[in-house]
Amino acid sequence: MSLQSLTTDELSTFKAEQEAAYAALGSAGLSLDITRGKPSPEQLDLSSALLTMPGDDFRSAAGVDTRNYGGLHGLPELREIFAELLGVPVDQLLAADNASLSLMHDTLAFALLHGTPESPTPWAGQDIAFLCPSPGYDRHFALAEHLGFRLIPVDLHEDGPDVAQVRQHAADPAVKGIWIVPTYANPTGAVVSESVAAELAAIETGAPDFRIYWDNAYAVHHLTAERVKTPDILGLASAAGHPNRPLVFASTSKITFAGSGVSFLGGSPENVAWYLGHLGFRTIGPDKVNQLRHARFFGDADGVLAHMERHRAILEPKFAIVERVLSDRLGPHGVASWTQPKGGYFVSLDVTEGTANRVVQLAKDIGLALTPAGSSFPYQTDPRDQNIRVAPTLPSLTDLEAAMEALATCVLLAAAEKAQTP
Ligand code: PMP
């Protein structure tokens, strides 16, 4: 029975039931955490073989001693594997160190200090704004804010950012870019469609050096048998006459080891040359030993996909628990909606408007850690105070089930409190 259709007495009874359930959870001494999208220990174990690689055979296919300096582009054999998976020509894809977030940081820092190939002047000292499809990845927004950019929210739909809003804002020359997670977005699981990608590639922008930060962090992180394909943003942008607009990012953080993987940067030939030109002052070369062991571990692109199937076998039951508990416990009451992602690491839960902060506080008080409400929005402010990001990957199945049951009680209690407030 939906909360809206309850009489005053029924609502009081319902609230008393939730309070009793909540009190019982409080005395259970929970210590649960569904805050961050980290791989579970079982997932990390899938890549344990890396720990003893490459062993004594540390030469690359071309005979390079990977222990030594050099090779700014990254190891060709690993770039080939990921070029195929990411749909980027191999000579336009660089392999780097362990974090794609560092590549995003560095490309922005280079733009601030030196400008991009088509910037009239370096970005530093200018009023700069970035478009932030929301809800989105908190670290994207935090990085842009940290660098002094203004954050402009735009709506994120199931097929990508709201193109009309992007077009309107991008006409302003201060707007220099947009964050996009094209496949299985963090946290909603949205997938950018071909037509949205084509429009983004072609939009007339006020800034000549407008950039699409195309962060394909979850390109191969499927949760169903369907391997959703990411649009070819580099090809679309070239065809639209804006070859330098997209910068493509990815990493193996959620394929092998989150702290010891390999990151990738793809772009137009001019962008790649621009990046390498600055990178050469920052480093003499990436960790090629790590790149070599990754190339050997996977073998080829099919090896990566087979490895991701093993991740899926671990993750699918976890996402199934989230779906089951939310639909069993919240479904009948009309107090929340949530995503059913086909891949990625998160479920995005919208609770009753105006109660997300309350839910997070209620959960904290009984030993359940949730990502702070508002985290997925620019300036950590959710205008509707309704979104909570659920990260089911790290906990065990038993802990996850307990966490979801507790979360459901907190959502229902907060909704009942709200419904009673005149
Ligand atoms: N992009 C997105 C969308 C992510 O969700 C994450 C991890 N939470 C990252 C990037 C971080 O990637 P990396 O470890 O390569 O820095």
TrEMBL record:
Pfam family, one: Asp_aminotransf
Single GO MF annotation: transaminase activity
Source organism (scientific name): Aeromicrobium alkaliterrae
Keywords from the named record: Aminotransferase, Transferase
Protein name: Aminotransferase class I/II-fold pyridoxal phosphate-dependent enzyme
Alphabetical list of InterPro entries matching this protein: AspAT_Ic (IPR024551), PyrdxlP-dep_Trfase (IPR015424), PyrdxlP-dep_Trfase_major (IPR015421), PyrdxlP-dep_Trfase_small (IPR015422)
Keyword Nucleotide-binding attached: no
Highest taxon in the source lineage: Bacteria
